[in-house]
Amino acid sequence: MNVQSINQALESVRYTDTVDSSFFQMLRSFKQIVLRGAGGFGKEIGQALIERGFATDNLLYWDVRADDLKSLNGIRVSYPFSEELQCDDVLIIHCIPNGSLSGTTIMRELHDKGYTNVIDGMALFESAFCDMRAEVGFDPKNCLNTTACNWTNCERLLAFSERDRGNPELQQSSQKLSFQVMDVFLSFKCTLGCKDCGAYMNVYADKGLDTHVPYQQIKHDIDAFFDVIDTVAFVSVIGGEPFLHPDFPQIIADILEKTNFGVLGITTSGICKISDEAIQVLKNNRTRVIFSDYTRSLTSKQKQLFQQNVEKIKTNGIHYTTGEPVWATTPSLMEKTIPTEQLASMKESCNSTKTCQALLNGRLYPCSTSLAVHELHADDYPSDYISLDSPNLRHEITALHNRLYYESCARCSDGGAPIAKSGVQAKDDRFAHLLDNIAIVSTP
Question: Mean pLDDT across the chain, nearest whole number?
């Protein structure tokens, strides 16, 4: 079976409908189905396949935690590439939907090992297992009641949010301006010091930049942005540790006043205090608390605090998920001399420009690298961000997205190596150059 036919079948119904029984016959043409990733998302995909008659003997999980997991859903868990399989007879379902770098890294690794029959688990979930249907329309409960899938990469969520929750004043616009994800950045303070933190929290702390973003600035940025765009599928509140912000409850309330977005998520390590005021504002049907579980790398006291916070959220009936994110090494942000053609190719293939855009300090950044380069004072590339005070904000957002590449792309070429254990507490000397304000240029 040509995997292209499977992907075409998924894409044909991904945004509105669902696949029919003939689709699953295509999947059965493969002797072995490997689910890459045995986390919450992989668990749900595996269970859904079993419910549709797939034998557990023909299914296999690949996960770096194989020694601990052993099996899931009655399906054996093996370490990735630890056994010899006939690549042509194997269908890989990529079931690690979190992390723009890790997704790129895993896909590259699969192809390097000769596995070309690969389908995206999110596309499969949206097209085959999601309860959102065209005749019913958008309902955030469909997303909140599914604890496994990752809104960051859900194109079905974007399509329904744009159709049913778009800004009514802009519905007749000839060119829609909608976002898969928009990060609202609250703080550079964190209760952890992770060696491979994708947000560079150790560096902010070492430079004395570990502060909260002022509430009035956050409120201004939210209002300015939502007034000029059609919709956002997933509004992601991040830091640092967002629960540390003294105005966290009011910020969440301000976001919830906006009608032109789909769902809201707050990402936390759970190693923090969650106030009673925060609990009250989180009791709604548009919000999920997303616990990133780093307890394999933390102390027993920190693990206990994490479990207490999860239980507190659960007891109060708030939507939540827990899971250990898959990490890849963070770019060093060392500037490199890279040809413009290569920079354009990097930007074209980069998922971060879709999933890691952010509102911060009066600016809209197109990706996490451009944000870090500017906010850490590594350099200032004015063309890599836009002011949210611009009188032509909608036009400038479109122009920013259409740039062939960003100057920051030259600082983003050395990350992406897979990390076996996320959340390790340590410093990394790869970022030592960021402690100075002098831009250091090196060749690849």
Answer: 92
